[in-house]
Request: fold
Amino acid sequence: FLATPLIWLGLKEYQQRRVLSFLSPDMDPLGAGYHVNQSKIAIGSGQFWGKGFLEGTQTRLHFLPEQHTDFAFSVLAEEWGLIGSTVLLLIYLFMILWGLNIAKSSKDRFGSIVAVGIVTIVFWQVVINVGMVTGLLPVVGIPLLLFSYGGSSLISTMAAMGILMNISMRRFMFQ
Reply:
C-alpha cells in the first residue's frame, strides 16, 4: 500500500490514463472511457425483456464498438435484456458445474487436475468478459467463450471441451 505512489510514478503516461479511465470512465467519455460507457448504456437500455433481436439502438447505430468480439455480451443484454443475459450466464454455470462433476468423478488424479484447469479457464474468461463490459473490471480484450467472434478462441475452447469429454468417458484407470 505504501508503494502505490512509487508504482504510480513508474507508470508511463498512457498507463496512468488507463488506470484513471478504469477508475472513472466519465473523465474521458469520448476517449478511453468510451467503450465502457457505451457498453453500460447498451446493457441498461435492454432493461428486463430487451429491445428484440436486431433492434438494439446502440448496436444498430454502431455506438457500441467491438460489438462482435469483446462487447458481444452488451449486444445480447441490449437485445434480449436481463432474461437473455441470465439464460446465457446459466448456460455457462451449467458448463462449469458439468466440468467440476467430471473432475470429481475422474478415475485418476491427472484427469481431475486437467478438468479443474479447463473449468478454471472457462470461469475466469466469463467473469473477466462480463466484468469488463459492465465496467467492474478494466477492458482487456478477453472474448466471451463460444459467444464472441474469434477463431482461435473457438478452436481452443472446443479442444478443451473435447478433452473434458474424453476425461468423462475414461472408465478404467490405466496402470
User: Anything to note?
Assistant: The two ends are 51 Å apart (CA to CA). The mean pLDDT is 85.
